[in-house]
Amino acid sequence: MLLYTLVDIIGYLINIIVILVIVQFVLSLLIAFNVVNMHNQLVASLWKAANALLEPLLRPIRRIMPDTGMLDLSPMVLIIGLVIVQKILTGIALSAM
Length: 97
Known about the structure:
By secondary structure, this protein is mainly α. The protein has helices spanning 2-32, 41-64, 74-96. It has one domain (2-54, 72-96). It is built from three helices and no strands.
């Protein structure tokens, strides 16, 4: 039962990271298309916070991935990797019950 609880907590953390990646992606699009600008203090704070939280996770992926120019695929790779880890941990927890 303890293993399942731990896997459940890790699953919640993974979901939070995935939501943060999506927020960063949407915010980057809004900034790129001048819908919002970085002179707004709230936007600048959100952008800095999202980058500070996600950069340690995305940096190793960016080092491994080939350069694709303007298109950064590392957030998608991070989401896919986290979902795979979540599925594996859930399978382990269910098999241990």
